[in-house]
Amino acid sequence: MVRDVCADVLLGLAVLTVASASLGVLLMRDAYQKLHFVTPAALVAPVLVALAVLVQMGLVENTGETCLALFFMVIAGPYLSHATMRAIRVRDQGDWRPGKAPRAEPEQ
Amino acid sequence: MVLGFTAAAIAMLISLIPAGIVIARGDLPSAVVAYQFITAVMVMVLALLAQAFQRSSLFELPVLLALLMFGGGMVFVRAMERWL
């Protein structure tokens, strides 16, 4: 009973995190600002879900596999966010480094 | 079936609607960001459904998607940077 309540509370927090991040992705002005709202959904909410599975099931194989998925997301998330930010800047400015000349337009 | 996990999975799927709107109506960088958001949420949805249906074999799907999320995301990002 206590385990169920704790798991439900953790799941509720995870859903709240994802829902608010989703609204952030929708409402923010440009991709730079939207990208900030991917991080809660990619890092915080998976931790809450893994904790909910851990509370519900205890230390079993299912919990291990959920934690493995969480591990991959925690490792990959920051790299992916950095690469996305860099790609958007290259697309906008022509180069990701500050002070570089803008990309030349292709000849017609 | 565990009701809380099923309800959380459904709520997270509903939360994907705003990101879908961004993909459909936003510019390309915003769409790529929304795609990454949806992929991250789908990993959790698969884990929640596996737990809800109490099937151990289904827990391999979120692990696989978490791995593919990085590769697929990088492909989209590099394509956006170089060619699109």
Describe the structure in your own words.
- The complex is a heterodimer of chains A (108) and B (84).
- Helix content of chain A is 78%, strand content 0%.
- Chain A has 108 residues and is mainly α.
- Chain A has one domain (2-93).
- Chain B has one domain.
- Chain B is 86% helix and 0% strand.
- Chain B is flat and about 45 Å long.
- At the A-B interface, helix 1, helix 2, helix 3 and helix 4 of A face helix 1, helix 2 and helix 3 of B.
Defining key terms:
A: 108 residues, mainly alpha, 78% helix, B: mainly alpha, 3 helices, flat
Helices, strands, pairings?
The complex is a heterodimer of chains A (108) and B (84).
Chain A: H1 2-27, H2 31-35, H3 38-57, H4 61-93
Chain B: H1 3-25, H2 28-53, H3 60-82
Helix pairs in contact in B: 1-2, 2-3
Strand percentage of chain B lies at under 5%
- Share of helix of chain B, binned: over 70%
Low-confidence stretches of chain B: none
Q: What's the SSE pattern of chain A?
A: HHHH
Beta strands of chain B, count:
0
Low-confidence stretches of chain A: none
- Protein structure class of chain B: mainly alpha
Intertermini distance of chain A: 70 Å
Oligomeric nature of the chains: heterodimer
How confident is the prediction overall: mean pLDDT of chain A? 86
Q: How would you sum up the major sheet of chain A?
A: none
Structural class based on helices, strands and sheet pairing of chain A: mainly alpha
Categorize the overall geometry of chain B.
flat
User: What can be said about the biggest beta sheet of chain B?
Assistant: none
Query: How big is the Rg of chain A?
Result: 19 Å
How many domains would you count in the coordinates of chain A?
Answer: 1
Question: How are helices and strands ordered from N to C of chain B?
Answer: HHH
Measured by residues with Cβ under 8 Å of the partner chain's Cβ, the largest interface is: A-B, 52 and 47 residues
Strand proportion of chain A: under 5%
